[in-house]
Amino acid sequence: MIGLIAVSVGCCSLLLLRLLFRKRISINGKTVLITGASSGLGEALARHLFNKQCQLILLARRIDRLENLRNELTNLHPSYPQPKLVQIDLSNYEQLSSSTLMNILEHEPIDCLINNAGISQRSSVLDTSMDIVNDIFRLNYMSLVTLTKLVLTKMIEKKQKNSSIVNISSMQGLVAVPDRSSYSASKHAVQAFSDSLRMELGEQYPKQNINVCVISPSYIRTELGQQALNRMHNKDEKLTDDKKSSAYEPDYVAERIVNAIEYREHDVIIAPFQQYLAIWLRRFLPSVFFTIMIARNKRLKAKK
Ligand SMILES: NC(=O)c1ccc[n+]([C@@H]2O[C@H](COP(=O)([O-])OP(=O)(O)OC[C@H]3O[C@@H](n4cnc5c(N)ncnc54)[C@H](OP(=O)(O)O)[C@@H]3O)[C@@H](O)[C@H]2O)c1
């Protein structure tokens, strides 16, 4: 018991010292690549980082959306670096190394990669086809790993210092919920991949100081839920998360992420208090957690 208290006090002191002496490395004017910048969180991140005069490289499939965003931003600040756009389907991750993106990576050292593109699901394990499981993993995990490897190789070759890899996970990457099995699993995989990578970089390239940051937000008001429903041909809007009154605005989450990049954070959870409690319960009192979650899901389904 005394040992446990000593360890807890030690950890709290270390955390406090880290908070007090954390160093800020400004992102102003840096080159930032954002995947999934055509809507939601990616779009909000693009706005924030453009205002910091970053050279943006924006990726998505809907090029018209990216063009509208670029026009809006450049009209606002004509003298700031014009964002570069790449229309790409990232789920074809096998073709990434032969895409036009490679040409940009060859000439443009990326200071910060934000792996943000993602898709979700709204169905039980039994109702989810293997095609959907595959699609979720191809985009949320395989493309993230492929792009990270491509960008990281260049960062290391060019001996860049203080760069960042930011992986947008989710609260569901820490605690799974019903009807999101593959989405939650893909985000758990992102967390594990990022943890391994952070340790490897710390061990092998300490002088380059490449930070790996995982962002785990709770619900955000974006198109994620609607896109999931469309893909499953299920138009039951009541199932969308973004209608939840507690959902965060993308702008707020983007601001927190930019802050996390500048302060070189490792793991950032953006969630209300009860969701921190859920993480704790899942770990230390799993049977209580599962009982609560089953009852909660029944109640939610009965309301619909
Ligand atoms: N919304 C939430 O409640 C929430 C909570 C926690 C974490 N997150 C995470 O936040 C990230 C951003 O999602 P969001 O909420 O902003 O949703 P969103 O508005 O639906 O944005 C998703 C983005 O991903 C892009 N994308 C989807 N499929 C793609 C593909 N095959 N190739 C390239 N780009 C693709 C979309 O662009 P195109 O369709 O134009 O390709 C879009 O720009 C995701 O990783 C998500 O898991 C969201």
TrEMBL record:
The UniProt record lists the keyword Secreted: no
Keywords: Oxidoreductase
InterPro entries (UniProt xref): NAD(P)-bd_dom_sf, Sc_DH/Rdtase_CS, SDR_fam
Molecular-function GO terms, alphabetical: oxidoreductase activity
Signal peptide: none
GO cellular component, one term: membrane
Family according to the record: Belongs to the short-chain dehydrogenases/reductases (SDR) family.
Its job: Putative oxidoreductase.
Name recorded for this polypeptide: Uncharacterized protein
Source species: Rotaria magnacalcarata
